[in-house]
Every structure is written in C-alpha cells, then in structure tokens.
Amino acid sequence: MDKKIAVITGDGIGPEVTRQAIHVLNAVAAQFHHHFHYEYGLMGADAIDKTGNPLPDSTIELCLNSDAILFGAIGHPKYDNDPNAKVRPEQGLLKLRKSLQLFANIRPVTTYAALQHLTPVKAKILEGVDFIIYRELTGGIYFGNKTLSADGNMASDDCAYTKNEIERIAHLAFQAARQRKKKLTLVDKANVLETSRLWRKLVREMQSQYPDVSVDFLFVDNAAMQLILNPAQFDVVLTENMFGDILSDEASVLTGSLGLLPSASIGNGGALFEPIHGSYPAAAGKDIANPLGSILSAAMMLDHFGLKEEATKVRLAVQWTLDNGFVTKDIDPMNFYFTSTIGELVADLVQDKIPTELH
Ligand code: IPM
Ligand code: MN
C-alpha cells in the first residue's frame, strides 16, 4: 500500500512525540511492505512564529492532497496568558477541522491493567471499562458568532446546530455501536438548551434505522458524574463539540494518563490523527513526554487505511511496553525511559525484534 501522509508536528512536545509515531509507521511499512511518504506542514504557534498565520494556505493545500494527516499538539503559554492576542495557535487547528470538514472526533477510552494504580478511581469501578466518544467537531459554540461589545463589558458566543450536522455524526456513532456493544448514549443538556433538544429529537427519530442499538439519553452534568461513578455502563458516547471536549479529558483520568489517549477526526474525505493531550510546554525538548498517544493515533490511522493487522500489531507492542515497565515519566517518575527509547522499542517490537538491551 502506498500512502501520502501530511505531518504537522505543531507546538511544544508535538514534534518529539510525532517523530516516534513516524518511527513506528516506518517499522510497519518495513515489516508489511508498505510505502508511507511524509510531507511536513506548519500549524499553530510554530506557524505564527514563522509566517504570522496559525494555518498557512500551503498547509491546507498539503492536507487536501494527502491520504491522512498526523498531527502533534498545539498551544503556547505566551498566547494563553494574553487576552488581547489577536492571533492564537488554536485557531489553526479549528480552521483546519472546518476547512476539511472533519466533523467527527473519535476518542476511544481504553484502560490498561498495568496503569490502574495511576488512576484515582477504584479498580473495581474500572472493570469492563471500554468505550468510545464520538464528539461533534465542526459546529456548536466553538464556531458560532462571537461578539465583544465596544466597551469590553459584554461578550457572547452563539451555539448553533443544523439537522445535517447532527445526523451525519449520529449515523457514524450508531454504526460504531453496531460493531461494538450496541449501546449509544447521547449526552446533552436538553432540559435547558434548544440545540440539545434538536439533538435528542433527531437521534430519537434515527433509532428506527438502528433497531439493534439501544439508546440512552443523559444530561451532561449527570454524564460527568456517571463517567467516574459507573464508567462501565458506556459503549458509544455521542455528544456535541464542547461537551465532548470536556468529557474526553475527564475520561482520560480512567486510563491513568492523558498521554495515552489517541483520537481520529474524520469527515468528508479527510482524516486527521492526533493524541488528545496538549502541547505540554514544560516538557518540550526534554525527551520525557509520552509518545504512546501519538503512536496509538498512528494505529488509528492504520485502521482508517484498512490495515487491521498492522494496527493490532502496534497496539500489542504498546501493551507490551506497559506490561513490562517500559514507561515514560508521566507513568513512573522514579523509573522512566525517554520518549525516543519508548518509540524505538515499539518500532522494534513491530518488527519482531526482541529487545536485548535498553539505554
Ligand atoms: C482538543 C483541544 C482543542 C479543542 C483546542 C486545542 C482548540 O482541547 O482537541 O480537545 O478544544 O478542541
Ligand atoms: Mn480538549
């Protein structure tokens, strides 16, 4: 298989974790006789520094002409602490999602026995936890009209959704549920928000097309509580943009480290793969960040290409590193390996090289 992959390493730890994902993709290519070609584009604070624009047109062009996009991380503290900043790194990612119509953000939440001691949640509660969040990504309050009054005393962000925007991601979520435990939970705030009532009505109407899937409705405040009280009840969680952003960070607590969660953003054609973690500026350049979120995002990319065996091999290699204590600093601050060491180890395992000695 021949694939062209657009690589946007982005900010902070983005470049170093993405480098390891590419290592692993190269190992997959060697082992399974594929050809992956990489072309690099700018986005985020990195792009602002170099071009003044968080998403140069050339990057959009590159992404439109690629089979998939591998993305690292975005964000820089110098913009977070400046309320007057006119240009922000995050605008780059939001514009890319919108330009490519990447409307479905898919975030699987997997727990690992070897990491259970890291979560504040009791082991018993984590039994059987395996769910996937389908977060709407190109609508809602993120993209509504924004205003700030001339005197600076009033601001607003509109939240809007169309039938089409809701139904297209709901179809994907129903189809995913069909392949899994056949349960869909819509998370909304239908007791207060008009947009939520539209989500609920449309999802209810779609149920007749998926009679084998059972549907649950939860208000977002209750869902936030249920995620910690009884996370094993979930299979596919469907929700709008901002609720999905918040709940997926919360859900990462169940896995033991935010550094492990991958995601895929798909839509009409394009597909972008990125770890859900941020740019972690304090760790940038130190070779201590966890590359597994990025490596597991590359595994989701392999799934997207239809390379199931390859994706499974990467996941098993990741599992092996965790089970055998080859972990980064976020997981074991006293006894840890470097980002690059873990990346090389996963790449070696993918190529059936049994590690003899590690540095
Ligand atoms: C995420 C991030 C982004 C979001 C930011 C960086 C704009 O938090 O991908 O979850 O809110 O969507
Ligand atoms: Mn987020």
UniProtKB/TrEMBL annotation:
It comes from Flavihumibacter fluminis. This is 3-isopropylmalate dehydrogenase. Signal peptide: none annotated. SMART domains: Iso_dh. It catalyses: (2R,3S)-3-isopropylmalate + NAD(+) = 4-methyl-2-oxopentanoate + CO2 + NADH. Keywords: Amino-acid biosynthesis, Branched-chain amino acid biosynthesis, Cytoplasm, Leucine biosynthesis, Magnesium, Manganese, Metal-binding, NAD, Oxidoreductase. Mg(2+) binds at residues 221, 245, 249. InterPro entries: IsoCit/isopropylmalate_DH_CS (IPR019818), IsoPropMal-DH-like_dom (IPR024084), Isopropylmalate_DH (IPR004429). Substrate binds at residues 97, 107, 135, 221. Gene3D superfamilies: Isopropylmalate Dehydrogenase. Residues 4-346 form the Isopropylmalate dehydrogenase-like domain. It is found in: Cytoplasm. One of its GO terms (molecular function) is 3-isopropylmalate dehydrogenase activity. The keyword NAD applies. PANTHER family: 3-ISOPROPYLMALATE DEHYDROGENASE (PTHR42979:SF1). HAMAP family: LeuB_type1. Homodimer. Binds 1 Mg(2+) or Mn(2+) ion per subunit. Its cofactor is Mn(2+); Mg(2+). Belongs to the isocitrate and isopropylmalate dehydrogenases family. LeuB type 1 subfamily.
